[in-house]
Amino acid sequence: MTEPHRISPEQLQRRNAILSRLLEVSLILNSNMALKPLLTYIMEAACEITESEAASILLYDRNTDELRFVASNTPGANIDEMLKIAVPMQGSIAGQIARENRHIVINNAEDDPRIFRSVDKSIGFTTRSLLGVPLHVKGNLVGVLEALNKRGEAWTQDDLSNLLILANHAAVAIQNVRQTEALRKANAELEKIDKIKNDFIAIASHELRTPLGVILGYASFLKEESQGEVSEHATAVLNSALNMRNLIEDMTNLRYLHLGKVELVKETVPVSALIAAMQNDLQSLAKAKGHRLQIDLAQADTSVLVDRVKIGMALSNILNNAIKFTPDQGIIQISCERRPAEIWLKISDNGIGIPADQLEKIFDEFHQVADHMTRRHNGMGLGLPIARGMVEAHNGRVWAESQGVNKGSTFYVALPVAGEAKA
Ligand code: ADP
What we know:
This protein is of the alpha+beta class. It is built from 10 helices and 13 strands. The protein has helices at 9-29, 35-50, 79-83, 93-100, 117-123, 157-225, 228-259, 271-288, 308-324, 383-392, and strands spanning 52-61, 66-72, 86-88, 104-106, 130-137, 140-150, 267-270, 292-295, 303-306, 331-339, 342-349, 397-402, 409-416. The model has no long low-confidence stretch (mean pLDDT 89). Adenosine-5'-diphosphate is lined by residues 317, 321-322, 325, 349, 351-352, 354, 362, 367-370, 379-384, 409.
């Protein structure tokens, strides 16, 4: 390696230019570039700062334990041919740079037996000299950066130092882009799976509705017309079919919520009417479990502008859970609290309670505190996400509080009061 003793004004100017180029490199490599333009930029910068004819980047393929050319600007070369070439880790210059994690300087490549000649041959290029540095990030091999054919004399110490600086930035930038691209791919894959799931739900719920209608019709007919054991069997069929219909309705509602297609037919309704409707809906279920429903209608004359059916569905889902997750002879309290521009409906039970780390998760689709295999209650984990979706479509909020396991739970539904804007 040769190093000039005295620095001429031209050399000083050149050093200046290289320094500003390296500064620019660090800024550009930190921006959000796609892989291809990024590699091109790195190669051009490598040629410029080392005054060489060409540059190549090889990336490490962990699966095959080989290096692969991913970019090169060798003049006149057949790049497509070059990109097909795999360079082995053993017996090649690039392989040695990668394995030993250190640079290699070759000033007379034509005589060097380590040069991987098949590359030169297949692309029609002659490597006269080579300066290669590893691309490494925190001990992980990313690849190799090579500058080829120094213009003029031999490689200098400055060429090496500058190429190493470039390689440090380049390795991080390449790694970042590859990780972002992998994430993007995984995301696209997830979106595809989500679409398949949604299409399946749409088709299944549509196709199930007709045969289910027939089963419901005949089962109720049979129940009315029969007696004794046959009537009991017909009731069992009817109840199962009704459960299935609820499930299909849940799935359909969820789909509409996802698509943002919930149509709201709003009217001004006093909260007392919403409470009465939910009580009416679930009274018999509560009675069957021996629960006491305590309803406090103070402040329930406040009106809200809501779709009765959709908010009714949300409230019924919450009350249904309170009944379901409270052992027999429990107490369920329903009350409301006037807040600035809002009314809070409160549904409390003295049932099995909810662990602190589950209070938010229970609003996720298909999430249940007890897993499917051990739980004793029926349901699919859709009641609360639907309740939250419906309430949020009204610009309201739903949340849960609990002191812990076996300490009961309280669910809040906050709805904007009709005609009052929030401060
Ligand atoms: P599902 O009731 O069909 O399981 P939900 O979405 O309505 O689905 O509720 C999700 C989970 O939240 C329930 O499985 C249960 O573990 C928990 N949960 C909901 N309400 C209560 C409650 N009042 N008390 C205790 N746990 C509850």
